Amino acid sequence: MILSQAMALDIQLPPETGAFKQDKGAEIANGQCLTCHSVEYVAMQPPMPRAFWKSSVQKMQQKYGAPIPDDQVEPVVDYLTKNYGVSTNGAAATAPTAHPQSGPGTGPGAAASDGPKIAMKYACINCHNVGLKIIGPAYRDIAVKYKADPDAFGKIDQQIHKGGSGKWGPMIMPPFPQVTPAETKILADWILGLK
User: Fold this and answer.
1) Based on the number of CB atoms within 10 Å of its own CB, is 76 exposed (0-12), middle (13-18) or buried (19 or more)?
2) Which tens digit of pLDDT belongs to each residue from 1-58?
3) Of the residues 55, 60, 105, 106, which has the maximum number of CB atoms within 10 A of its CB?
4) What is d(CA 89, CA 98) in angstroms, rounded to the nearest whole number?
5) Structural domain spans, the chain
6) Do residues 30 and 38 lie in contact, with contact meaning Cβ atoms separated by under 8 Å?
7) Cα dihedral 37/39/40/43 (nearest 10)
8) 117-168 pLDDT, tens per residue?
């Protein structure tokens, strides 16, 4: 009699390392498009005019149920047209340019109470909720996991800026490199302060 043991197969997918070109609206594209698609999926599209991008975004929203708020459709279409449209797709990629950010969490009076506003700005709430796992872990679960970890901020910072998977399950979190250090601190303080 021959006995054999089956070995478990461990498959590791590469981390999502792509990020959209840094420009006005990149945070919306990262938050809305990367929930389902990779940057490469968008970047590999043939150069198309605004009408194509608008119909694509509306199709994702209306036919596939992408949770893109109506007030973000035009800004994401503007961003995609400008950065991946007819005159730009296929041009050599340039290094991202730092753009000053404005909005919640960037002023001198920013506080952890701005955390929810920043989570809205970058569409973190599409995958995360304060008390309930959606796609990613609940913010309270993150706070509990890192409660006694002296490197909690560093781990949250790394996850926000580089993305990744495996810490909370197989779902990939896209990177959000455009979140400023000040915004990251406010988000982390808010999350870690949840009880």
Assistant:
1) buried
2) 566 677 777 766 565 556 788 888 888 888 888 778 888 888 877 778 888 888 889 8
3) 105
4) 21
5) 26-84, 112-192
6) no
7) 110
8) 898 888 888 888 898 888 889 999 999 999 999 999 999 999 998 888 778 8
CB 178 within 8 A of CB 102: no
HEC string of 49-105 equals CHHHHHHHHHHHHHCCCCCCCHHHHHHHHHHHHHHHECCCCCCCCCCCCCCCCCCCC
Asked if domains 26-84 and 112-192 share a fold, the reply is yes
Which tokens sit at 72?
């973000």
Identify the CATH class of 112-192.
mainly alpha
| Interacting residues of 88 by C-beta distance below 8 A, sequence separation 6+ | 47, 82
CATH 1.20.59.10 fits 26-84, yes or no: no
Q: Given this model, what pLDDT does residue 93 score?
A: 34
Phi then psi for residue 86, to 5 deg, are -50, -45
